[in-house]
Amino acid sequence: MQTRRSALQTIILAGVAGPSLLAGFPAVAEEVKSLKAAYKDDFVVGVAMNAAQIAGKDALGDSIIRAQFNSISPENCLKWENVHPEPGRYDFVVPDQYVAFGEKNGMFILGHNLVWHSQVPDWVFHDDKGDLLTRDALLARMQDHIRTVVGRYKGRIQSWDVVNEALNDDGSLRQSLWYKIIGDDYIAKAFQYAHDADPEAQLNYNDYSLVDESKRHGAVALVTKLKEQGIPVATVGMQGHYNLDWPSAELVDATISDFAKLGVKVAVSEFDIDVLPPATSQHTADVALNIKQNPTLNPYANGLPDRVQKQLAKRYGDLFDVFVKHRDVVNRVTFWGLTDADSWKNDWPVKGRTNYPLLFDRSGQPKLAYYAVIRAARK
Ligand code: G3I
Fold it and tell me: Domains in the chain, ordered, with CATH?
């Protein structure tokens, strides 16, 4: 097995030289040395950075990110509980490092996220006595947060996930405390505050399972309403937490077309493909889900069979074909993590599984799926 260093050299120095598994696949163009080079005329290719990568504690990971990607997202450091853990106390140490990394490497930098029902401390919604805030008080708190965080990185973070996961599976608005206290215009307010804080920033609505019919209709209705009100929503983030069987390429294709008709761009904002047996029949990325471990749910603890490796590669290739087809509307494809070892999918919805959802394996080697993605750009 190659070492991590030689794997990196494979990518950076030697260009794309397919592993033996590639046999049977059409030849990959040797001169294409990175994902960002492969898609330079189509869209930016991004990756979510974890704490170690941002802090410079994963030197190999950072080298791969620099070599392969031209956009970054913060996997966790800009979520409310991390950047604004207590009233009046912001912690910008890690976000500053994150933005510096992106600037140093000339990358398109994302902010994720401003308003979400999850990873937001309880105090945000309560006053000193523990009572729920009034609408006006919560709006003031939201505005302060957005103005402070977006304002700090004005002109430096180019795109913000302003509102994250506001929809239920049936397309109705989630009954979060944002919704219950402020009302359904909390979304419009959040976008307006973000726009006021940085008028140049590209503002996104971001959610999972938008391919599912009811939820897609809900998102279309939401974006339509925001646009009618003159709210500056620029991009819909289709998170893209998919698996080997779902959703079909046709469904992804149709969903992108539906959003394109609204006059917004589409970002595939959190892309990964789960290869493990589904632990739930729901199409969800709800972080609150926690299903009990069971060996039948973790069949590849000792390695991914070639058969599944090929299946994953084909799946990635098929979906990138769709993204390329829609290159006029798709402005970014971001992977939710760098290597299989980094992925949240090892611990969700079942803790402690061994998953293989990304393009780089646990030692940083490009997988067959990596070559399939490169190949999809060359058709
Ligand atoms: O902060 C602690 C750290 O101090 C401790 O050492 C570590 C040990 O387990 O846990 C750390 O926190 C974890 C954090 O990830 C960093 O690893 C949290 O418990 C864990 O809940 C958190 O999970 C993240 C999750 O969002 C919730 O914020 C995942 O990494 C992240 O991939 C996931 O990302 C979300 C998107 O933001 C929104 N869409 C769905 C997507 C997947 O759930």
Answer: 35-378 (3.20.20.80)
